[in-house]
Amino acid sequence: MQWILGLGLALLLFVVLKHWGGLTPEQKKTAGWKLGVGIFCGILLLLVLTGRVHVLVAGVAALLPLLRKLPLLVRHLPFLNRLYQQYKEPDSGPADGASQQRAPAASGGMSVREACEILGVGDGCSADDVVAAHRRLMQKIHPDRGGNDYLAAKVNEAKSVLLRK
Length: 165
Prior knowledge:
The chain has 9 helices and no strands. By secondary structure, it is mostly helical. The N and C termini lie far apart (about 75 Å).
């Protein structure tokens, strides 16, 4: 059995070296990385299957090759930070309330008029009316009670828009 495995490995090594000779330097670099990651993953899988490495440790070790992508992620951090700041502190919008009710928010959010229609309340409703309408609707459409995630998200967004008003 061992000699069959040895012959198979020798044949595999011969094929890989023959293919390696016909590659350009850039292709050799790419193939070298792929081969290194493949060997690493193979050894890691062998160690997990034989019980020498815990699965969680193997999972963390499998993420190590992704560290090459870390500079790309760091390059996008200012953009992600700006998006987070816009999410955390939305624009105040126009000064008069009438134009704010007619047009949706600049961030693509829901307008006050749409929020009132969704919750079924009037324009001059109080915060207690909004909370009561929200509670009534969520009891009907909550995902835990067989409702829809999309509708529940829209009702939650309508509540937050009206409570900010």
